[in-house]
Amino acid sequence: MTGLPDQARIAKRLEALWQIRLGPGGGADRPAFSSAEAEAMLLAAGWAREAGLEPGLDVHGNLWALPPKWTGGLVSSGSHLDTVPDGGRYDGALGTVLGLELADELREGTDAGARPALLVCVAEEAPRFRAGTIGSRLLAGTLAPGALTELRDAAGTSAAEAQARFREQLDELATLEPPLARLRAHVEIHVAQRRALRQIGVVTRVAAPRRFEIEVRGQAGHAGEVSMEDRHDALAAAAEIVLAIEVAARSEPPETVATVGSLAVAPGALSVIPSSARLGVDVRAISAPSLDRLEAAIRTAASDVASRRGVESGIRLLRAGDPTAMDAGLAQAALEAARHQGIAATETWSGAGHDAQHLAALAPTLLLFVPLEGGESHTPAEGADETDIAGAALVAREVLTALG
Hints:
Helix content is 33%, strand content 22%. It has helices at 7-18, 35-50, 93-105, 134-140, 159-169, 234-250, 288-309, 328-341, 355-359, 386-401, and strands at 54-57, 63-66, 74-77, 115-120, 174-175, 183-191, 200-206, 208-217, 257-266, 276-285, 312-319, 324-325, 345-350, 365-370. The strands form two sheets. Strands 1, 2, 3, 4, 5, 6, 7, 12, 13 and 14 form a ten-stranded mixed β-sheet that branches. Helix 1 (7-18) packs antiparallel against helix 3, helix 6 (234-250) runs antiparallel to helix 7 and helix 8 (328-341) packs across helix 10. The longest helix is centred in the last third of the chain and has 22 residues, at 288-309. The two termini are 24 Å apart. The mean pLDDT is 95.
């Protein structure tokens, strides 16, 4: 590999972001639209100025850094700077820091004269408002600004209120119009979140989540006085539905998964038969037909179990989506660039959501994965090898250089 990026500068910047706020477990703690995320954005804005760019915010709170007095084509790179609670050093931060490296190295422009830009999307992580990729979805128009008033954190603060405070903390940055019409391509580099990936991953498809709430309604009763044959136990029915969801997911391709991640039971007393149970279900697939089949299987299972057990069930769709195909031309160019550089790379897919899947609706977009070192993602133990980091940066640079 030739022309390696500045590893010392990359490590120093990742450490500076890491130290902004640490969680109780020692991990990075920069929630969406928080003061810690705002501080990280200001750090990135300062580094962008060092790379010869002018930083500013769009109306949604996304950070752009653009070449001054330039009205021609742009090739952008970047990721996000917010984290899950007690998150990792590399998730989001790595793609942003490498975006700055690419902007610095491509100051003279691409072969066809486009100039580099930085794009850091706000509020990518879902835990605070139970909704992720907020900044990129707002930018792509797939999330309405008005919807932010309905998204609330555990303290009752709406995403709209948090967004307004976030922007106030960044009032030193100018407000700008997103230069979408000039955007020729976007590259996001992200640490992989799959242990099996052992080389640079060139993502061709990103899975779409479909999220549901299943409510099962039975009949409460005294645990000691209602016979087993006379029970209409909502939790017992919900348990069957959970297992049926697992069976249905296992019958699909291995890239298709289903998770029941939350369960709320009422009345929730040890000696009372549950009268209701609510399940939170997350389904993901890179194949739309597989996603449709699994959704149909879940609906059928809930109905069948409810009928057989004498309870009622209802399913509410919380979020719909279809898998996203990344730009085939950029993916092929990345694989060829890796071969040219002598870097091990492979075509892959993503089960996790990323800003890149939404930005793909605005411009040709490339998503590159840096292999996960140590097997843990979204934790303080998250790791990535310097050689792999450099390899991803070199692949991205070669792809962007050839664009115009």
